[in-house]
Amino acid sequence: MSLKVFNTEARALGAFVPLEAGKVRVYACGPTIYDHAHIGNFRTFLFFDVVHRHLEWSGYDVRFVMNLTDVDDKTIKGAVAAGRSVADFTRPFGDAFLSDCRRLGMLAADSYPRATEYIRQMVDFVARLIDKKHAYVAEDGAVYFSVASFPRYGRLKGIDTSTLMAGARVSQDEYEKEDARDFALWKRAVAADEQASAAWDSPWGRGRPGWHLECSVMSLTELGDTLDLHLGGEDLVFPHHENEIAQSEASTGKQFVRNWLHVKHLQVEGRKMSKSLGNFVTVRQLLDEGFDPASIRHQLLSAHYRSDLNFTRDGLDASRSAVQRLVDFDDRLAAAPTGPGAATELPPVSAETLEAFRAAMDNDFNTADALGALFGMVSRVNALLDARTTVPSDDVKSVRDALASMDRVLGLLQLARAARSVDDSVAAWVEERIQARADARKRKDFAAADAIRAEIAARGIAIEDGPAGTRWKVTDASAARVG
Ligand code: AMP
Ligand code: ZN
């Protein structure tokens, strides 16, 4: 069997065939960094991580890009309220987001482009669309995409675009668009944009990019004209992704995305999450409440990404037990009394489980069924070990290998082990020190940065710099445990 995915555009499950054999180019719509990401966002981001991990596990050479939206209406509003530039205002939220990703055991992306780093490319892109008559400059200096120039508009959502006009007509009076469906590629700068240093020169005057444009330009620049997978939450199908298709295909003349995958929104304590309902939760809050990252990861992966999932604290307690069961199982295998004897059923159980696990993940990343296969193995093997005094070491090894292999996709055991080897106050201390070191490096105070690295090393923790920032791991658990 090979990977099948549910492509939003085809509205059906289909074989996943990348453009170039063996290579997969993935673009994931990342967070808007005007606040801390919430647990709903992380349902989506952890799904991205599972896609990333499963593709690598399946042997693909994956290039994985996730953007950080650092200029849009919300970041500008936040920056103005804080009296800062968008760059200064969003930086701590971007750092906090990457730290949350690390705490939840997410693989680093190959690149995390920020919109403000691609303004020149965005201006060039808009100019090209104007040249090709897919865009026009309105009297106020804003540039709009001409939906009428792109007949395939509406195909992702599956709508007849003529029905769009009626509903959108109100805004026609507000903007000088030629057609109510047209959307802004480039917005003319207003006072707030200048105040937040979120305005740039362009052939059409001072302005800033529209949000949809940002993702098209970052993805095409980072990954080329055609992406194999484009991922996001379900609310992004329309208009965000529909508009990305229109802009990108009008510009390149090629298919933009071969497969669109969208994650269903998470509910929290039975309801849509909102500040007014009091069920708005961030990852850091849950960690502060004493829940561990592996439990959060387990609960968010416990349902298939297109199914409903209700996140609850009771559910987190159940997830904590499930993760503990895995840790205990792994410990039991490590300590299992081995000795010569008749072959056991362990190797066939391991092989069957791996097969069921692969089939579940290949079936549109069905993490619920994959977890079912894994925990089924735990029960069967536990029963087998209960019934024997010793088992051949190769048989135990087959189970340990299967467990480690599945965990490369799920990332639960790794995370539970890492989190349990230091307590939360130590983890928070390390994150704080890593941030202080990054700040020192930004100031070019390398002596201070080196001193911080030594301070961390003295606590039995090694740090490593990479594209996702700095990762850390415990090298001497006894030192790391000393509060
Ligand atoms: P934002 O930071 O608002 O741009 O959202 C980042 C990502 O999280 C987007 O892909 C959203 O679709 C997704 N998202 C927002 N709310 C939820 C939710 N309740 N459940 C799952 N994903 C969400
Ligand atoms: Zn996007």
In short:
This protein is α/β, with parallel strands linked by helices.
Give the helix/strand layout.
Elements: E1 4-7, E2 12-15, E3 23-28, H1 39-57, E4 61-66, H2 73-82, H3 86-103, H4 119-131, E5 135-137, E6 143-145, H5 162-174, E7 183-188, H6 191-195, E8 207-209, H7 211-223, E9 227-233, H8 237-252, E10 257-263, E11 267-268, E12 271-272, H9 283-288, H10 293-301, E13 310-311, H11 313-335, H12 346-362, H13 367-386, H14 393-410, H15 412-421, H16 424-442, H17 446-457, E14 461-466, E15 469-474, H18 477-481
Helix pairs in contact: 1-14, 2-3, 7-8, 10-11, 10-15, 11-15, 12-13, 12-14, 13-14, 16-17
The protein binds adenosine monophosphate and zinc ion (ZN).
Zinc ion binds next to loops.
General description of the model:
- Helix content is 51%, strand content 14%.
- A hairpin with a 2-residue loop joins strand 14 and strand 15 (469-474).
- It is globular, with a radius of gyration of 25 Å.
- It folds into three domains: 4-267, Rossmann fold (3-Layer(aba) Sandwich); 290-420, Isoleucyl-tRNA Synthetase, Domain 1 (Orthogonal Bundle), CATH 1.10.730.10; 424-474, no CATH class.
- The longest helix has 23 residues, at 313-335.
- A four-stranded parallel beta sheet has the order 4-3-9-10, sandwiched between helices.
- It is built from 18 helices and 15 strands.
- With 483 residues, the protein is α/β, with parallel strands linked by helices.
- It binds adenosine monophosphate (AMP) and zinc ion.
- The site of adenosine monophosphate (AMP) has 15 residues, from helix 1 and strand 9.
